[in-house]
Amino acid sequence: MPEKTLAKLKKEYLVFEKKYKFPKFHDLNAEFEIEKLQGHETEFLLREIRRTITDKIAAFLKFFELFLNPQAAPLFILSALKSISPAEKDKIEKIYKRIIALEIKAISLDISYDEKREADFIKTTYESWQSLKGELKIIDDILSRVREENKPNNKSYFG
Known about the structure:
The protein starts with 5 loop residues before the first helix and ends in a 10-residue tail after the last helix. Helix content is about 70%, strand content about 0%. It is mainly alpha-helical and about 160 residues long.
C-alpha cells in the first residue's frame, strides 16, 4: 500500500478545509504538527488530526498539573514554584481549566466517530489555542526567572 505523502495529506485536508472552514493547512500544522500524519493511511483523517491536536494539549495539561500538584514534580518546577506570585498561580489555574475543558471534549469524541463533531473540535480548538497562546507566555516568564536563579555564580568562597 503506498504511503501518504505530504502533498496527498494537504490535498485530503483541503477538502475538509473548504467543507468546515478550517484554518489553512500551514496554520494548523504550525500549531499542532499535523504533518506527522503523512505516511499514515486512515479512513478517518479528522479523527487523526484531532488526536494529534490532543497530544499537544495533553502535554500542556501535564505541565500545568505539575504547578498545581507538584508532589512528583521535577526540581526545576519546585524551583519555579518558589517564584510564582499568587496572581500567577491564579492565572495558571485559569489556563489549566481551559485546557482541561478541551481535553474532556476530546475524550468524548473517542466514544464514536462523528465527522461533524470531529470537525467542530478541530475548528474550535484551533481558535481557543490562538487565544490561549498569549496566556501561555506565563511559562516563559516563570522559566526565565528559574534560569536566572540557576545561573552559575562567578563569585567563589575564596574571593
